[in-house]
Amino acid sequence: MSSSAHLKEPTRCAPVPARYGREVPEFRRAAVSEIDPLTLYGILWLRVSVFVVEQKAAYAEVDGRDIEPGTELLWCEEAGVVVATLRILRDDAAMRIGRVATAESARGRGYAAELMRAALARCRERSPGLPIALDAQTQLEHWYGRFGFLRSGSPYEEDGIPHIPMTLASVDNFGREDDDGAT
After folding, report:
1. pLDDT at 15
2. Which CATH number fits domain 11-130: 3.50.50.60, 3.20.20.30, 3.40.640.10, 3.40.630.30?
3. Which residues, in sequence order, are bridge partners of residue 12?
4. Cβ count near 55 (within 10 Å)
5. Nearest 5°: phi and psi at 164?
6. Distance CA 24, CA 80 (A)
7. How far apart, in whole angstroms, are the C-alpha atoms of residue 108 and residue 106?
8. Higher-pLDDT residue of 157, 13
9. DSSP helix/strand/coil, 149
10. Domain spans of the chain, in order of start
11. Per-residue model confidence (pLDDT) at position 5
12. CA-CA-CA-CA dihedral for 36, 43, 68, 37, to nearest 10
């Protein structure tokens, strides 16, 4: 019996057509307890690679929130390798999207945008009417704005990186552009 025999198959998100002869990406969603250990390792490795190493922000990336009840991780795989990810949290007063990360080699392919659309749909499905919030790195304000997010508070700095709180303004805006400006 394999160590992952007790795991449920992660939910597949809507497929994105292959472009330019690339491997067809697979989009998935699951709670941490349902993710194969090697896939979970790939998700966490990607987040550490982007947020801690690339952005030089020394902080506890594995913060305990991934295992909170109701937390779901969404990710994109190419040929079995995790190339983009994000997570959905349920706070007391809002659904929260965070930890949006794309491998440098996969940027510009629309994977983070597809994950955002899937995350917005999932937040609406799980908690209709509850606000959806995120804390954006300031340089990504316009990118999140494509999905209907508006600045909802004062800028602040976290681990030396400027951030702004944002809240979804429109329940019908899923992002219309295909470019992938998120890191």
Report:
1. 52
2. 3.40.630.30
3. 28
4. 15
5. -140, 140
6. 11
7. 7
8. 157
9. strand
10. 11-130
11. 41
12. 20
